[in-house]
Each structure stands twice: as C-alpha cells, then as structure tokens.
Amino acid sequence: MNVVFRADASIFIGTGHVMRCLSLADALKSRGAECHFICNPDTGHALDLIRLRGHAAYALPGDECCAPGADFSEDAAQTRVIVSKLNADWLIVDHYLLGQEWECQIRSAVRKLLVIDDLGRAHQCDVLLDQNFHNPIHARYRQTLASDTQLLLGSEFALLRPEFATLRVPALQRRNGSLSRLLVSMGGSDPDNETNKVLTGLGAGWQAEWTLDVVVGSSNPHRSCVAEACRRLPNARLHVQAANMAELMLAADCAISAGGGTTWERCCLGLPALVTVVSNDQLAIAEAVAQAGAQVLLGGNSDLAARDYAKSIAALTPVGLREMSRAAAAICDGRGAERVAARLQ
To answer: Can you give the CATH number for the domain in which 71 is found?
Structure first.
C-alpha cells in the first residue's frame, strides 16, 4: 500500500501536523505500507526529520509557506503531479489552510482521501479524522460532510508514537501527588517565546526540591534565550527536538504546556498539566479537557504574565494532582495510530 501525506511545518505553524502524521506513518509502515510526505519547504520545515524517521519526503517548488487567503490551485496541481507518480492508494491531508476546494482538485488523482482536522470544516473526503476529545466541534462534521464519509472522532484515535502506550502502566503507577519534577513544553516552534515567560515565573518561586526539563523544537527561534534561562535555574535541563518525550513525561510530576497534540501524550501517561492556549484553534479542546478535570487551563498566552505561572504551580495540591492524573488517563490510551492504520488496510 502506498500512502502519501500532505502536511507542513514551519516556525509559524509549528510541527504538530507533521508529528501526528509521522506517528500514523510509522504505524502504517509497521503494517507494510510505503509512506511519502509532500511538504512546503518554509523556514522550520520538517523534511529532514521525516527522512530520519525512514519515510520519503518531497519538497514543493518555492520557499514560501501557504498563507491564509491564498489561491491553493498551484499547490493542488503540484501535489497532484507527485501523488500520480507515486500511484497513491491513500492521500492523507493534515493542513488548516488546505480545505474543500483543494480536496476537490486532488481527489480524482488518488483512490482514497483521508483528512485530519479539528476545526469542524466542510470536506470532500472518504475518511475524516478528528483525534480530539469529544467536544461541540464534532457535531459540525455530521452536518457538513457527505453521509458516506467515515468519521473517526475522539481521542481513542489520537495519533501517538507507540512508546506512549508502552509506558502507560508504569507512568500511572507512579502518580502519587508528589511535585518535584516539572516538564515545560510550549510547542515545537514557540514563536512568542512563552517558554521563557514560564521559566521566569518558575525562577521567582523556585523550590529547592525541583528538577526541571525544558523541551523546545529545533525550529524554535529563541533557543539561545531559553538556554540562558535554563542555565540560571538550578537543576534545569534543556532538550532540543527531544526524541524521548515519553520518558520525560513518565519522569515528570506535572507539565506546564501549550494546548495541542501533546495533550493526548500527557493524558495517555496520566500527567497532570497547567495548560496555556497559544493559538485560537487550541481553545475548544483545551476547555473540554479542563472541564473533564484532566488539566488546569490558565488561559491565552497573551493574557498571562510570568507571575501567573508561579501562582498556578504554588496552588497545586497532592490530592488535586492525583485527581487530575486519573481524569487524564481516562481520556486516551495511546493506541490511536494502530486503530487508524487498521481502518486504512
């Protein structure tokens, strides 16, 4: 089976779309599929990372990422050429700026089309995957998609790497309400440098027993600033493009994190979290997960100051951490990529 992914990463849109596609690609490859990626080579692209994971990657002509309101006909035409040469059985699209019009232009070039979305948009596809915890957006798909479109909705389909499911049991066993090791992860690119704001807040209320892991992506434009902030804190370690995120989450007692794809990784391992919304598309999901008791939603990053992070950490209790962990673990078991891969066979 030949599977082609159309997804982008950049400093501005982050790496989340490509990372969840990579989890599905790995699951499909383990079932014998050949996986290929088509990407825009904008600054902060993930083409090298994709190739390191053992998948083919093709750069579209040009060096500019898609922009809102642009005409995507050329993108569709270029993608269609590559897809046709690869004789794709499935095209999987994960892109907020490529929608129904783009899909109509590309659909006849592939046997089947799967769209990954979490914005409740209209689509022309055979399968629609929204991996997020059940929320009001899911109702929009039933209103706008064709009746024969297969819907894969909910965090049981969250696209995680297999190590998260592997570490689930030991992670849940160690959640006892203690708070000595913290994990900070504000997204792969973090263009607003929210990471540094968090570190400033933690520094103001630093506890001697704390150990801190700070994760940034290789495309983060503020890496030197974050590295310097880590050097000023005792027992703080910086991880760039961490390949061991599951192990870091296993070891952590609480995360300070952006909303987004890492939500399901944290839930799988029952990791309590203080969550900041860094883009509007994260809000509905972050609110739903917070209402389920699986995280504390602090608000939008533009409304938060460093002192807010310090106050939120100080307000955590052992009982609250244990309850948050139990609620998180009930949301996701980490086997979503396997489930989706099985549906595509």
So the answer is: 3.40.50.11190
